[in-house]
What we know:
Helices cover 29% and strands 39% of the residues. It is an alpha+beta fold. It has 2 domains: 31 residues; 93 residues, Sandwich (Immunoglobulin-like), CATH 2.60.40.3230. Strand 5 and strand 6 form a beta hairpin.
Amino acid sequence: MGTLKKFRTYFLIFIAAFIVIGLLTKLAMRENFKDVLDNEIKCESPVISIGENRATYSHGYIKGTVTNNTGKHLPLKYLQIDLYDKDGMYLGTEYKELKYFNVDETISFDINYTYSNVGKAVLDITDEMSKKERYNFFKGIDDNQLKIALPIAGLLVFYTILP
Length: 163
């Protein structure tokens, strides 16, 4: 009977520690988020409003609402969010599907993204999802050159790190 009580005690201590560590981690990470103040909304109808746009170095989120003030039913639209860094370089695009968007309906959105150094968000309503080309550091270099250059660069890094 004593073993069962010890097990129950240790189990309750484990659960309490798990909850406390989770809460402390959430509180510690909350301070890392900074507001992204440079937001641009391209369309006037439907109305897009941003409630919160916060980012850390490696990820972030945008919360807000979209209101259909066009006076007609929209069967399928997409909320497009183009993300740029502080220097204006394109990072990527996130989409939120607005399906069966009725007249005077308000849809809230919460979009998470995993791009680094986000400094600006451009929001728009589109009819289809499209792919924009991201900035490619190796643009203009063919695959054969990369197959040779990358292993050599790796060896040079190890040579400079190791004594």
